[in-house]
Amino acid sequence: MNVKKKVITISCILIIFIILLIGTSHISDKLDKINKEKEYKLIVEKYYADKLTLYEKENNYYDDYEIDVAFIGDSLTDGYDVSKYYPEFKVVNRGIGGETTIGLEKRLKVSVFDLKPKVVVMLIGANNMATMFGNYENILIKLQTNLPHTKVVLLSLTSMSKEWGKKNHLASYNNVIIKKLAEKYNYTFIDLYSPLLNLETGELYEEYTFDGGHLTHQGYVVVTDVIKPVLKELLNQNNL
């Protein structure tokens, strides 16, 4: 074999080796990504299951209509220290991070039906905003059927910023529908979108969020100031 052929042969072998090396590395990266996704999914599933187990245990502690207010929803509710912000009421938090309208409908029995609170405050839809009305009304019907003596408050979707801010237009549109559904079922509607919105930027006030979608203490103070007077009025009706 002459020198030229040797060089070509060696070059081909190197190229094949590099391709195999890159391919192996790519496969390894994909496997790592798949494993991380599986690991994350298992963590989320365990968190969800643990939450439901906790709610089941808590339900045994209370008599029917002993709880003044039950807050249900996704991470905005899950991260809301309701006992801190509503010390004058007997409240429970039934939020689960990452929740959708689909998941919430499935867990209504454990979250509120078995608890039978005087008032239910619901904030849901941010995690499946484009499809939330596929079953949002089903939730309202089930609340009305299973908790005929419970007052229901529907919270609007909040305004957002940063990457989340791209959904503000859809959120405001969906809030119109939520309000109409509240009227249809004779439920109370509370607008959280406007109090949190900076009109100059068209987004959630910077100091009210740490990531554009979830609220800081200051954000929750604003939300509480809007919700609390409504709860006081509802609980005072018919001496609830």
Q: What report would you give on this structure?
A:
This protein has 240 residues and is α/β, with parallel strands linked by helices. The chain has helices at residues 3-59, 75-78, 82-85, 101-106, 108-113, 136-146, 168-184, 193-196, 217-236, and strands at 69-73, 91-95, 119-123, 151-155, 188-190, 197-198, 203-204. The protein has a single domain, classed as Rossmann fold, CATH 3.40.50.1110. The protein has nine helices and seven strands, in the order αβααβααβαβαβαββα. The model has no long low-confidence stretch (mean pLDDT 89).
CATH-defined fold name: Rossmann fold
The largest β sheet comes out as: 5 strands, parallel
Counted up, domains total 1
Determine and state the CATH class.
Alpha Beta
Mean pLDDT: 89
Rg measurement, Å:
25 Å
What name goes with the CATH superfamily? SGNH hydrolase
Structural class: alpha/beta
Question: How many separate helices?
Answer: 9
Helix/strand order: HEHHEHHEHEHEHEEH
Q: Which blocks of ≥5 consecutive residues have pLDDT under 50?
A: none
